[in-house]
Structure formats: C-alpha cells, structure tokens
Design brief:
18 helices; 0% strand; mainly alpha
Length: 401
C-alpha cells in the first residue's frame, strides 16, 4: 500500500525510544557507584522521565501536521475525533474497567470510587485531584495516566486553534513560539505561587504545552518551501547537540536528574522540547539517526508503545508480587532485578496480545473515516512533510502512541 511505502518508519522507532526510557525509569533502578560507567547508566535511567517530553514533541509534530493537511476538507473535525477515539478510548477504558474491578475486589463492595470518575473524564493530571486518586483502593496503578490526560486536553482545542490559521502558516509558527514561551512562564509562576508548584508545572497542560508546540512548529516548518525545509534539516543536528549539552548543564547545576526542582521543571523542560524537536527532525532525514530509529527492535517497541504505556504500571503490583514469590524477598538487588525481568517479559507479552487481538482490529475501523489532504499555503504543489531529498512522505496518525 502507498501509505506503508511512504510511512516514515523511523518515527515508530522514536516512539520506541520514548517508551523504553519511561519503562527503564520505573523499573531500572538507577545505579549509584564510584565506577563511572555504572554511574552514567544510573543517571541515564533516572532521566527516563524525559521520554514523556519526547512523546509530547512527537505528538505535537504528527497531530499538527495531520490537522494542517486536512482542515477544511469534508468532515475533517469529525473524522479526526473519531480516529483519535478509536485509537485511545478502547484500551484506556478497558484499563479503567480493570481498575474498577480491582477497587470492588479490595473494598468488597460495589462502591464507585470518585477517582474512577476523575480518570474517566481525563482530569487526572490536575494536582487538585491527586488525593482523590491516591485514595482509590485498587490493586493496580493508574498514576501514569496523567500524560494521557494532557494529550486528550490538547486535542480538545488545538484543531480549532489551527482552523483559524489555515492559509497562514507563518502565523501558526509564531503562535507555537508564543505558546512555548507562555508555557515556560506558567511553570515559573507555578513555583512562585504554589507550594506544589512542581506538580502544576510538570503535570498540567499549560506546563507541557511548550513541548507539544515545539513539535507543532516543526510540522509547519517542514511544510514550507524547499529552502525552509533544507534549513530545518541542515541545523537539526546542531540544535540537538547544543540543547543536549545545555540539558546536561541544567542537570549538573542541580546535581539531580529528576524533574522535582525549579531549574529542571522550568528551563529544563523548555530545553527538552528543543532537544527532541531536533531529534525528530533528524529522524525524518536520511542519515545515521534515521538508520538507528529504523532498526527492527526500536520500530517494534514503537508499535507496541501504547500497550506498554498502559500495562507496564497498571499491573505493576502484580509484577512485584510475582517477583517476591520467585526470590522470597521484597527488597534488595535480587528482588529489583527479578521484578525488572518479570515486568519486562509480562508487559511485552500482554502488550503483544493487546495489540494484535484488540487494538489493531479496532484501529482498522479508522479507514472508514479518512483524513484527506488539501493544498498547503506554501509554494509547493504537494502538501505534507518532505524529507531532506524533497521526496514526499506520508505520516500516519499515531499521536503520542
């Protein structure tokens, strides 16, 4: 099929890197040692939360491009929301059913926890609801679903924000820059005005809008003239390397690799947005980075990424219980190593079953609701992103997952 032939396979690999980073953060431990290589691996694992930033940048890039290419066509907004719903809702609400069942099992009653309602309407990223969510008597974990709430809230207004800018790509790019700056200012203000400012900065849509808009900016830039696209790909590596070094500088200043501090949660997230925008641009162009992301293991992880995201923590308590049974311990290196392998194997197996027998059959329904393309406002005759050689490429709708 044409879509498969033109699909930028490396972007699946980018998703694979993002979900691998998040999984290692939750189960990799983060080794500390006087031996430099071990210490570097540990620090890399501790910074795995940046995988969420990569997801947001990639989502902003893909969703904005898909919308920009289709706005104004017949049923564009209806088809967009139906396609998003078919991709996200079935597995997510299946996870909520599991969560509700575990709550009933623990409480021995059919009481409907308030936290389930919060999750059902995608408000779990608001710190005001964190106490309600933590009070749910569940045997599963749902804390990681905050990032999905950010995505769903983004989908509510972004299509209509772009609709007002059709034919004005330069203004759309300026809007992305303005929202990127506004997001940084929101994070700074959150620390100034709230005692839990790091949670408002890190978990809420206004605080993460910068990364989404960084990806959106790239989507608009690669839909420009040949000269503009050439500049994007020419400086992508420089931007990536420069922002990576700047990120290391931010980490070194605070002597920490977590987001729970002012410099990382404010300026660090802004640098991360630029870093991963450069990385996505490199993945779009032929070269060493694209070659790496096109390798089968990375692409395969990317295809399973939504299931891995949902199941790797949802069943976290179950994985820990199995590890305890196997090593007869609940702490120590043996337990953590065993839990890592149990979690990895079972998460992959469950995600594979979920993908091939549940997610993919539902996703095939999206073909009934196509997102047709229109001409862009640039001087090019074909809309949509192009690689560095100028060849037209097709971006399938994958969003964050």
């Amino acid at each position: 099929m044409q879509e498969r032939e033109n699909h930028v396979l490396a972007l699946d690999g980018v998703r694979g890197l993002a979900i691998l980073s998040v999984f290692l953060l939750h189960y990799g431990g983060g080794a500390t040692s006087a031996i430099l290589p071990i210490r570097l691996v540990g620090n890399l694992i501790k910074s795995g939360w940046l995988g969420v930033s990569l997801f947001f940048v990639l989502s902003g890039f893909l969703i904005s491009g898909i919308l920009w290419d289709s706005i104004g066509q017949a049923h564009w907004w209806r088809n967009f929301y139906i396609r998003r719903s078919l991709r996200i809702f079935p597995l997510y609400y299946f996870a909520l059913l599991i969560t509700l069942g575990s709550c009933i099992w623990v409480s021995h009653s059919f009481h409907f926890p308030a936290g389930i309602g919060v999750l059902a309407v995608y408000l779990q990223n608001l710190p005001s609801f964190f106490p309600t969510l933590s009070a749910m008597p569940a045997l599963v974990q749902t804390g990681h679903f905050w990032s999905l709430a950010v995505e769903e809230q983004f989908y509510l207004f972004w299509p209509f924000a772009l609709m007002s800018l059709v034919g004005r790509r330069d203004i759309a790019k300026k809007m992305c820059i303005a929202l990127f700056i506004a997001s940084l200012l929101f994070r700074i203000s959150a620390f100034v005005w709230s005692s839990i400012g790091e949670e408002w900065a890190y978990n809420c849509l206004p605080g993460r809008m910068g990364e989404l808009c960084a990806g959106a900016y790239l989507a608009f830039a690669v839909r420009g003239s040949s000269a503009e696209r050439a500049l994007v790909f020419k400086y992508a590596a420089t931007v990536t390397i420069g922002s990576f070094l700047l990120m290391l500088l931010v980490f070194s200043r605070v002597h920490a690799y977590t987001w729970r501090n002012f410099p990382v949660a404010t300026y660090g997230l802004a640098v991360a947005g630029i870093l991963f925008t450069g990385l996505v641009a490199q993945a779009m162009a032929p070269g060493r980075i694209q070659w790496i992301f096109q390798r089968v293991p990375m692409v395969w992880l990317g295809k399973l990424s939504y299931g891995i995201y949902v199941y790797h923590l949802l069943f976290g308590p179950l994985y820990a219980a199995i590890a305890r049974k196997l090593v007869h311990a609940s702490t120590g290196n043996s337990f953590f190593v065993c839990r890592f392998f149990v979690s990895a194997v079972l998460t992959i197996l469950i995600s594979m079953v979920s993908f091939y027998f549940f997610e993919r059959p539902v996703r095939e329904l999206k073909t009934k609701f196509p997102m047709t393309q229109r001409r862009d406002d640039s001087s090019e005759t074909v809309s949509g992103p192009r690689d560095i050689r100028g060849a037209s490429v097709e971006i399938k709708e994958i969003g964050i997952f």
